[in-house]
Amino acid sequence: MVVGVDGSPESVEAVDIAAVEAEVYQTNLRIVHVRTPSETATVIRSRPRDGERPRDGTRVLAEARRRVEDRHPGMTVEEHLADGDAATILIEESAHARLLVVGARGLGGFTGLLLGSTAVRVATLATCPVMVVRGGTHRSGPVVVGLDDPATSAAVSAFASREAERRRVALHALHIDNRGPSMEEHSTSDIDVADRLSAWSRRWCDEFPDVEVSVTVVSGVEPADALTEASRSAGVVVIGSRCRFGSKMLGSTAYALVHRCDCPLVLVNDR
């Protein structure tokens, strides 16, 4: 389990949930701080923002480690201080991680991580799933999984089912049918979608018999809107990170939820 930290309140929240995830997965936690070129050159602002202290990577890591060890005695915690580009370092770290956890915003180092090209790089190139922590960190609601095509969402569904099992909560799948008003020529397609959703439900119920699985089909709304609404009562939302049709770009739904999701969001590379 890897978490990026820069001392901001958002990254502290990311450390907290990463530690919980590490405990649930019974694995160690690696805390990473990336010093930007400006930090390395000791270039600082003449007047810090209110409530912000000058940052030192070693101190940030030490404080994060103490916080985890105080709350999770016995957990193995590693620290890693790196210099360079935050996205590049995190992508490299993801190669050996089950999950990469980051806060939605930061002070520096990870500043802008989820607000532009860096977000695209991390979400699309990370080897492991990426969890974006924003709001509702300790909420114990169900795992909500956004299903595009049930037949091709195996990686997303597997992660979501496993997460529900480990959290001991229900798994709620949300499939958005945005083909427009129902028409007679859609009848065959409607039956096909229903069959695929039934097959999806049977598969994951069989593989995770202790998880309560439910499926909801929503029509006439954008996927991002439906998932944002669902996130208000969810413990975590899990979706695929990529665009449809094999694109390597971050999907529009994923991009919207990074900014709007009301609970931790997990982006799974499903292409």
TrEMBL record:
Domain UspA: residue ranges: 2-134, 142-268
Transmembrane segments: none
One protein family per Pfam: Usp
Stored Gene3D superfamilies: HUPs
Family classification: Belongs to the universal stress protein A family.
Protein name according to UniProt: UspA domain protein
